[in-house]
Amino acid sequence: MDTKSEATTTFLTRPYLPPLEEFLPYLAQIWESRRLTNGGPFHQQFEEALREYLGVPHVCLFANGTLALITALQALRITGEVITTPYTFAATTHALLWNGIKPVFVDIRRDTCNLDEEQAEAAISPRTTAILPVHCYGNPCAGERLQQIADTYGMKLIYDAAHAFGVSLAGRSLLALGDLSVLSFHATKVFNTFEGGAIVCHDAKLKQRIDYLKNFGFADEVTVVAPGINGKMNEFQAALGLLQIRYVHQAIAARLAIDRRYRQAIADIPGIRCLPQIDGVTPNGGYFPILIGADYPLSRDQLYDVFRRNHIHVRRYFYPLISNLPMYRGIASATPANLPVATRMAAQVLCLPTYPDLAASIVDRVINILARGH
Ligand SMILES: *Cc1c(COP(=O)(O)O)cnc(C)c1O
């Protein structure tokens, strides 16, 4: 490995970790007790701590966000067709395919990059059983309107909230929306347990079903109530999560300081714009997307290459659109003509590096490259 260039390369994100010495007592306890998984003490404590931190009634921990998504669809017995966004990470839509469900793609809104709620209503067919929106970059979906549509047509509403950890709108957590929400604690997310995830739900019966499903369907030693999966979070992940919660507030504050710095500087750069900040939102600073306009001297991909040459790995989130991947592009709703806004966003977007300990000097280098175009 070329350690020199490794050391000087800036990545989109750098996982946040607490001081190692603070984690060692947790590890000692796991070694001592030999409780490694299956709902051990750290699992219980972390669930409780998350419930409190997020201000939600029920949390079901998972080994990762994708298993949580797949299980969420199982828990609500979703079948047939589900309306969703093409402008997301592959796991959102893959979770539908793993359940034998057909995704129906709907275009996104310019301001939030989220599923357009009015077009979602127009896409409903007799086979539609649910809507699966994503709070893209932590921007809130139109929760009230989507709930109204779901209620009118008797459909479930499941949020992919992988970007929305700690985000609230008018003081209310986004995780309070819909029938349930799915979180990811992957290394690249605002809050991480190396790998990890959770389902947030609002009633104890649904939590019980989800907890059975994530443990092969076992209700007790001799009773298996459903063909469940192994989605359990282990004690190592849970212990780390418990410790990470103590630091997440300061990690988010550091991200938001970088967000302000980028936003201020980019306001003065012709041809580049940021997504608007939405009134009443308490954000988490998880992503910093910019849109490269036709009036900027470089194309998006040329700018991407300039950053690469400067050892700064910016990312084109979300390009390509999920609807353009080989396993989806044959679906009628996947045609680019049906998704003009998403298609344009995917061609213009670039996510800039942001993470709690990103040095101010690198933020300045990023801004200088944007301003000079080389
Ligand atoms: C990260 C992510 C996931 C998947 O979560 P994992 O924990 O990596 O399995 C799902 N949806 C979105 C939108 C994501 O960003």
Could you explain how this protein is built, in words?
By secondary structure, the chain is α/β, with parallel strands linked by helices. It has 2 domains: 20-244, Aspartate Aminotransferase, domain 2, CATH 3.40.640.10; 249-372, Aspartate Aminotransferase, domain 1, CATH 3.90.1150. Helix content is 39%, strand content 14%. The protein contains 12 helices and 15 strands. The strands form 4 sheets. The chain has a 7-stranded mixed sheet with strand order 1-9-8-5-4-2-3, sandwiched between helices. The model has no long low-confidence stretch (mean pLDDT 97). The site of pyridoxal-5'-phosphate has 14 residues, from helix 4 and helix 5.
Describe the protein's topology.
Layout: H1 3-8, H2 20-33, H3 41-54, E1 58-62, H4 65-75, E2 81-84, H5 90-98, E3 102-105, H6 117-122, E4 128-132, H7 143-153, E5 156-160, E6 168-169, E7 172-173, E8 180-184, E9 197-201, H8 204-213, E10 218-220, E11 223-224, H9 235-266, E12 272-274, E13 281-282, E14 289-292, H10 300-309, H11 340-348, E15 349-351, H12 360-372
Parallel strand pairs: 2-3, 2-4, 4-5, 5-8
Antiparallel strand pairs: 1-9, 6-7, 6-13, 8-9, 10-11, 12-14, 14-15
- Tally of individual domains: 2
CATH class category label of the largest domain: Alpha Beta
Binned, the helix content reads: 25-40%
CATH superfamily annotation of the largest domain: Type I PLP-dependent aspartate aminotransferase-like (Major domain)
Q: Give the N-terminus to C-terminus distance in angstroms.
A: 28 Å
Uncertain runs are: none
Class of secondary structure makeup:
alpha/beta
The largest pleated sheet is described as: 7 strands, mixed
Per DSSP E runs of 2 or more residues, the count of β-strands stands at 15
Strand order of the largest sheet: 1-9-8-5-4-2-3
Heterogens: pyridoxal-5'-phosphate
Query: Helical segment tally?
Result: 12
Q: Tell me what portion of residues adopts beta-strand conformation.
A: 5-15%
CATH architecture of the largest domain: 3-Layer(aba) Sandwich
Global outline = globular
- Rg, nearest Å: 21 Å
Using the coordinates shown, work out and report the CATH topology of the largest domain. Aspartate Aminotransferase, domain 2
**Secondary-structure element order, N to C:** HHHEHEHEHEHEEEEEHEEHEEEHHEH
Determine the mean pLDDT. 97
